[in-house]
Amino acid sequence: MRVLVTGHRGYIGTVLTKVLANTRFDVVGVDTDLYKGCDFGRISDDVPSFDTDIRDIEFADLVSFDAVVHLAALTDDSVTLDAGLIHEINHTATIRLAECCRKAGVSRFIFASSCSVYGRSAQKTVCEDSPVEPIGPYAASKLRCEQDLRRLAGGGFAPVMMRNATVYGASPRLRMDIVVNDFVASAVARGRITMRTAGGAWRPFVHVEDLARVYAAVLMAPDDLVAGQIFNVNPQDDNYRIAHVADLVAEQIPPTTWTASDAVFDERSYRVDGSKLLATLPQFRYRWSLNVGIRQLRNALSGTGVTPGEWRSDRYRRSLRLQKLIEAGRLSRDLRLTETAAA
Fold first, then answer.
1. 67, 125, 218, 235: least buried by Cβ within 10 Å?
2. What is the CATH number of the domain that holds 293?
3. What is the spatial distance between Cα 228 and Cα 1, in angstroms, rounded to a whole number?
4. Tens digits of residue pLDDT in 19-65
5. C-alpha–C-alpha distance, residues 233 and 218, integer Å
6. Can you give the residue range of the structural domain that contains 187?
7. CB neighbours of 162 closer than 8 A, spacing ≥ 6?
8. Which element (helix H / strand E) includes 308?
């Protein structure tokens, strides 16, 4: 199977392409590589790719592929980015890409959605049929994509919507602006964790390697099992309060301490049921637990001697990197590479 991975040089993409290649997929990537130089380890050059903005991909670019895994997106609700731009890249470009895939005969379209579409839920756990209440433009764009992709399903086109839990774990393009990675890096670099909220909100978590393995399993699954379906992607027991995550990190990286900010309320809180995916793909097994993933990150970061300055830097924080590229004139306000960057 020939698979195109959008955003293949990102945090998830650099892990996913390796997993897919090891599973004998014929993998090609597409990425404008905005985070070039933001490496944590060695980036593989083995994946053939083309440097095209996902807003500019055309029908002709897709005719040789059997499947597309669509990861590329703006990853958070950064105050430095206009909500309209988030909608343009995360929703409009996604649906345009899907329509091109349908026209080109690409049968499988795996969309990286997010459990953040649940917003704040009073339910004990939420499943794929639970009410959704996205908070912020990022989550709203993901939900709109799900709705529009399901309308496109049929006629040989099989979209699958993957609601990813909060991802963590080591990657060649490591991010430290996501909660577990942030906490571990802060503990290694400073010996303390400073939470921006009270820490009472619930989140589901999935290791980046397990996430990649799930995507590989869905690519191989028959259409009648997965086409048009939404799946929560998280191990059954990996729902934690943010304060509990801080406790687990402190236990594994002594003598780390942590503090919370009672003045800030986290609107998003949800516990997620991932049983539908496991029932659909009964041979799949998650390999990572949060405790083991914390140890992996601790060992990786301790080995590099990460400093407080590096931990806070734009090298590992996506919105800071985009802001720096804009200020340097290498990226326009609509996040297109400028002639300065091309030179």
1. 125
2. 3.40.50.720
3. 20
4. 999 999 999 999 999 999 999 977 777 899 999 999 999 999 999 99
5. 11
6. 2-342
7. 110, 111, 112, 113, 214, 215, 218, 231, 233
8. helix 308-312
